[in-house]
Amino acid sequence: MKRISILVLVPSPYSIGGVSHYYQKIQPYLPEDFAFFTRGVRYQYSVFARLIYPLVFFYDILRFLLIISVRRTSLIIINTSFGITGIIRDSIFIKISKIFRKKIIVFFRGIDDDVISTITDNKLLWSLFRKSFLTVDEIWVLSGQIYNRIKSWGYKGTIRMETTLVDSSLLKDYTIGKLQQKYDNEGPSHILFMSRLEKIKGIYETIDSFRIFLKRYPDSILHICGDGKEKDSVLDYIGDDLDRSILFEGFVYGKRKSDILSKSHLFVFPSKREGMPTVVLEAMAFGLPVLTTEVGGLCDFFENGKMGFVINRNDPDEIAELMRKTLADRDLCKLVVGYNYDYAKDHYYDRVVADRIRSYVSNLL
Length: 365
What we know:
The chain is of the alpha/beta class. Helix content is about 45%, strand content about 15%. It contains 15 helices and twelve strands.
């Protein structure tokens, strides 16, 4: 029987989201004594999977009890999204872990101010949260915003700022020089939006901004990559521009994702709320200048003018002007390529993140 020292609670590999992707990419770089325990809804968009979830949850609890009581486990790492269901579910796993006297790390993935308000305003939920999450050995977060919030709640343990990651295999065929070459070539500018298709991600502002930019640079192309609940509305909004100046690529991964990132000249991300958006880190890894709002973990590292430019008002005219300003200076773009490529490689590549995780765990044990 394989010895387990660290048990990591993760969502289903069939779920669509950053947490599942994060652990699929980081696992090869972690020691053998890391084991993974799937809990939660197995198929995110399946009505049947959600209907039977109470039974699945009971099954998960029984499996968890069996593993930590029979197999030698020193540390539990719980990845919690800041939602009511996730908070209630994982508070139970924390309570069980404490009964068995295990060390516990909670890794908060993202933040939702509405959910935080619901928890803090409800005496029962707040009591549950304080007596579970605020008693663990360490908390990892993705932004200074949630770091400060947890400190203000009176948490006395260690809080670590962490990140999401870049899948280094996406860049196996690319160097800084190769990624800079496109800025010396004549031809249309390729602008990229890549994210879940939701209003909060700024998809409509991106389309409006591009249409303003297009009036001055009519041969430009906007690539929209992603899927989500706004897909049909986004396609309607694109209208006659579809397959002409605006290309809808859908959800992309692997070589197709690398191809689009490598040929794009600029990444636009006017999101209104984030934890640590992996898509921005991936765009940086490919050297792209980034236009972004300062949200979530981006506030903690993004260097305005060196990595791209900060969107202040999230106004289409402002974003269109930033598109023009950035792409008009090809020498600046090439400087950004080198800076962003190296920064992402040093901070966000999967093996780099894995090394940090191993170090944190070693220090705690």
